[in-house]
Amino acid sequence: MAFSAICAEHGITRQLGYKWVERFREGGLANLVDRSRAPIHRPQATPSEAVDAIVALRKRFPQFGPRKLRVTLEQQHPRVPWPSPSTIGELLKARGLITERKRRRRTPRSTQPLAAATAPNIVWSADFKGCFKVAGRWCHPLTITDNASRYLLAVRGVQAEREELVWPLFERAFHDFGLPWRIRTDNGSPFASRAIAGLSSLSVRWTRLGIAHERIEPGKPQQNGRHERMHRTLKAHVARPPRATLDEQEQAFDEFRAHYNEERPHEAIGQKTPASVYVRSTRPMPQELPDLDYPDDFVVRRIQANGNLKWNRSFLCVGRVLATEAIGAEPIADGLWHLWFGPVYLGELREKRKGENEFIANRT
Fold first, then answer.
1. How far apart are CA 353 and CA 130, in angstroms?
2. What percent of the chain has pLDDT over 90?
3. N or C: which end of the chain has fewer CB within 10 A?
4. Each residue of 300-329: b (16+ CB within 10 Å) or e?
5. Count of C-beta atoms within a 10 Å radius of residue 212
6. Other C-beta atoms within 10 Å of 140: how many?
7. Is the dihedral angle over the CA atoms 23, 29, 33, 37 positive or is it negative?
8. Are residues 175 and 223 in the same domain?
């Protein structure tokens, strides 16, 4: 082939092609690597005397940051052209005199798109409407709505936003109305956590029931705007002011739910009431949480009680949130597996040598 045709086939110019050919002639395959473009001489480099002064002052005052160091040095030696604070920071970091702050672990963002609620029970929304005191005790109203019909499925006060207090309310809603296909929440507890893939004990139960958990983006409550709008109405009716006793507060919740569903017309559904639009789900709540099914080519393993996965004589930490749960390992390539908890992607498992496997968890 002509040299120009070879270069065109690989998407490079002839000039670039001749450069790599010359590199090969000079040093063979070992010479076919990108070379550093760093200049040999750096006229703008910080003088060594200035670097020594910066380092010495930092060691004397470890609490001083780059800006404070520069101001102090300028006061002591005003005629010296001290580098910028960013350059001082890089100099200190290169010498191990700055420890980067640990990144705060946040709940992994949901990667799935938010579903369109085109019919009842495709998407339910759940959230807490703040908290307020009733008879000296905190009340956290949990609300559950159907996005398509705006039907208020449940509104109940709990003493704290914990899974063991919230799950019975969802369980009752599932028995009364059947199962939705998705539940949309924010990223807070107990709906989500900082565990693998953002799973919580509550969302693990939902997954086993075949319910996908949708999480809105942090700081974007408008993605659950229908539910937030209902909260405004709820607050005006039952929390301003709170009732005198917990029983009276629960009665107020029940009265508001009946009014909201059966009497109050909603513009978004053609001035109909939510009760006239909502229909019960055809997916019944099972008596027990079913185990998840995986394709035949998956390897199914059960997570140990301490959150570890035993794989080829090694133990990989998956997390206690999945303790005793069955997960599926999807073969991708030789020694490469993708781990799944139902439809939830957990991460990548790489087999190296026996006892030295690597698990890269899904925390994005």
1. 51
2. 35
3. N
4. ebebeeebbbebeebebebbbbbbebbbbb
5. 19
6. 18
7. negative
8. yes
More confident residue, 176 or 359: 176
pLDDT at position 241 over 90:
no
- Tens-digit pLDDT profile for residues 275-290: 999 999 999 999 999 9
Q: Which two tokens stand for residue 84?
A: 């910028």
Chain-centroid distance of CA 13 in Å reads: 44
Instruction: State CA 239 to chain mean position distance.
Output: 32
What gap in Å lies between CA 306 and CA 204, rounded to an integer?
16
Tell which residue, 224, 203, 179, 216, has the closest CA to residue 344. 203
Helix (H/G/I), strand (E/B), else coil: 280: coil
Residue found under tokens 């035993």: 310
DSSP-derived pairing of the beta strands 123-128 and 137-146: antiparallel
Domain for residue 104, yes or no? no
The answer to whether 118 and 124 are in contact (CB under 8 A) is no
Adjacent-strand bridge partners of 142 = 128, 156
Per-residue buried b or exposed e for 173-191, using 16+ beta carbons within 10 Å of the residue's own CB: bbeebbbbbbbbbbbebbb
| Average pLDDT of span 339-346 | 92
**Same domain? 83 vs 203:** no
Residues 186 and 319 in one domain: no
pLDDT of residue 239: 67
| 3-state class (DSSP) for residue 302 | strand
Domain that holds residue 83: 48-94
User: What is the residue whose two structure tokens read 């959150």?
Assistant: 307
Largest CA distance in the chain: 91
CA distances from residue 270 to 25, 116, 223, 267 in whole angstroms, order as listed: 77, 18, 22, 5
